[in-house]
Design goal:
The chain has a single domain, classed as Response regulator (Rossmann fold, 3-Layer(aba) Sandwich). It has five helices and four strands. The chain has a four-stranded parallel β-sheet with strand order 2-1-3-4, sandwiched between helices. It is an alpha/beta fold. α4 links the parallel β3 and β4.
């Protein structure tokens, strides 16, 4: 269940999206030669780590980090359990902080929240052309994939399904 604040933010983001505000984050620049996907979320324990492991499973080089993550924490236990249903094993994952991430030529940053992309652009000096919003690759376009942390297992499963769908489409576009 989403909070009132999350629902209002979702409505606001959909309006901005339909007015064209986030469209550039839904397509890969033709000038970008992508060699690695870099998935980003808040804590690097749920969404970004699942996306990283799934992209690697389907043959795309990928890493992840969190904009508010410390280095060295394990993945969320509920996300680990959900991932195992898709034969993904997150038990070896340790979080990576934004400070520890080093941009490499060929990196395509894939965020789950526009706030994260704005933070990365400012911190790392990256341009929009090297960034995507994962949720814009879903049939039901979403600017933000809400963090499942603290939610029930059904919310985690729905988040995982969204991540699998978006990652498959992103990988298809960049190959």
């Amino acid at each position: 269940m989403l909070t009132k604040k999350q629902r209002l933010r979702s409505v606001y983001e959909r309006i901005i999206y339909f007015l064209g505000g986030y469209r550039s984050y839904g397509r890969v620049s033709k000038n970008l030669d992508v060699s690695r996907l870099v998935f980003v979320c808040s804590g690097n324990i749920c969404r970004s780590v699942l996306a990283e492991y799934y992209a690697n499973k389907i043959g795309m080089n990928a890493v992840s980090f969190g904009v508010d993550a410390p280095d060295g924490d394990p993945a969320n236990r509920t996300m680990e359990a959900v991932a195992k249903n898709n034969n993904l094993y997150l038990d070896g994952h340790l979080t990576t902080s934004m400070e520890s991430y080093t941009y490499q030529p060929g990196d395509l940053i894939v965020g789950v929240d526009i706030k994260h992309l704005n933070m990365i652009a400012k911190s790392k000096g990256l341009k929009k052309e090297s960034m995507l919003l994962m949720g814009l690759f879903l049939d039901a376009k979403k600017v933000t994939l809400i963090d499942p942390y603290g939610k029930d297992v059904i919310f985690f499963e729905n988040t995982a399904d969204n991540i699998y769908e978006a990652v498959e489409r992103i990988v298809d576009v960049v190959r």
